[in-house]
Amino acid sequence: MYKLLISPILFLFDAERVHHFVCDALHVAFKIPFVPRIIRKLYTYEHPDLVQEVAGLTFRNPVGLAAGFDKNAEMVDQLEALGFGFIEIGTVTPRPQPGNDKPRLFRVKQDQGLINRMGFNNKGAAVAAAKLRSRKSKILIGGNIGKNKDTLNEEALSDYLICFRELFDVVDYFVVNVSSPNTPGLRELQEKEPLMALLQALQTKNLEKMTPKPIFLKIAPDLTDSQLDDIIEIVGQTKIAGVIATNTTISRDNLRTAPSEIERIGAGGLSGQPLKHRATEVIRYLCSKSNHAFPVIGVGGIASPKDAKDKLNAGSKLIQLYSGFIFEGPSVVKRICKSLVRS
């Protein structure tokens, strides 16, 4: 019903406005006493074979929601009822920021993809932490953290440490985002020397805690094999928990959408089906080259049970959806979970 009736109507309107409309509608619906139970019955599938132990955490199933959908941790209870095994909030920055000018989120329907240049729009780490303290569900939460746009790269560590401190007591794991293409200069932090320093400093603070939290690094799909080799070395030396592969791509290769339409949309990170094969290649390279030395969470172009299995077969321990969730609707989570049990 979603693909036949609902999405054709929603896709007539601006993508970001639709996102806020759907979130508001879910908030209203969940205030009706019986609705959360019905939604959970429709979209949640539980089975012992789906439970995963990764980085010391127990995930009820391996299908998570990627960062970017619930930037401010305002939808955790509603999203939990849609069957996800874990939810990643953010990207969160120390101070609130409006993000880039609108419009900044675009559907590339012929390619089943999205282009965004949101620019880390969020209400700040303190607001996200407060929201998480008031949530009712116990689903595992990842905190995706970044720097403010006006923070120089030389001072970026301070921003990441602020987010780390604000969120430490309310998230189950952290994700260091240095791979978004929508904050000027951010991807420069993926270079070996600054990345090593950033992760080492965060891990040092982490290990001072009574119970440290797993820290993952989210990387771009546009890295070369040499840069991926550096990532493997950095993970090994800093002893962070693992890698999330991958973020959005700046590539526009092999799209079916007319070049004129792509040019009209302009800059931004591309996600969804166009990213599928490259993301799988990166996962396979990291897992094979490192001899599975650390867990990889696979994300990029997952919109079906087959897509999910391809990522898992490439070596990822968990997977995350975003664009596939938008184009396929909430039932995709349950379909993937059922297929993993049958297989």
Automatic annotation (TrEMBL):
Pfam families noted in UniProt: DHO_dh
Topological category with respect to the lipid bilayer: Peripheral membrane protein
Positions annotated as active site in the UniProt record: 180 (nucleophile)
Annotated metabolic or biological route of this protein: Pyrimidine metabolism; UMP biosynthesis via de novo pathway; orotate from (S)-dihydroorotate (quinone route): step 1/1
Cofactor descriptive note: Binds 1 FMN per subunit.
Catalytic activity: (S)-dihydroorotate + a quinone = orotate + a quinol
Protein name (record): Dihydroorotate dehydrogenase (quinone)
Protein source organism: Dyadobacter jejuensis
